[in-house]
Amino acid sequence: MIEALSLAGALLAPVSRPAPAAPSSALSGASFSDALAGVANSAADGLRTAEATSILGLQGKASVQEVVESVMNAQQSLQTAIAIRDKAVAAYQSLTQMAI
């Protein structure tokens, strides 16, 4: 019983978390358009990788697990890109509806 209470106390004890990392110097000087372009390029590279892995899977040179992981990563990248696009369109529409 005491061991269970000790374990529960240890699980409920506050967890020390590392301090957030400071932004790197490479990102601090980058413009928003550069960052957006980097995200878009990264998503496109992920889609190309997924396509290549899928072809290798069809040829029997890649395992099913590798194909599934690659396609899931590409799907996540595509969904992120779509969400960013939707937010940009919504922001543009909000700006166009403002009174001057």
Describe the structure.
The structure is a single chain. By secondary structure, the protein is mainly α. The chain has one domain. 75% of the residues lie in helices and 0% in strands. It contains four helices and no strands. It starts with a helix and ends with a helix. The N terminus is likely disordered.
Q: How do the strands and helices of this protein lay out in sequence?
A:
Blueprint: H1 2-12, H2 25-28, H3 32-58, H4 64-96
- In the residues, how many domains can be counted? 1
Radius of gyration: 22 Å
Mean pLDDT: 79
Order of helices and strands: HHHH
Number of strands: 0
Continuous helix count: 4
Specify the structural class. Answer: mainly alpha
What proportion strand? under 5%
Largest sheet: none
Helix content: over 70%
Spans of at least 5 consecutive residues with low confidence: 1-18
Distance between the termini: 70 Å
Overall, the morphology is elongated
Task: Describe this structure in a few short sentences.
This protein is mostly helical.
Properties at a glance:
single chain; 100 residues; mainly alpha; 4 helices; 75% helix; disordered N terminus
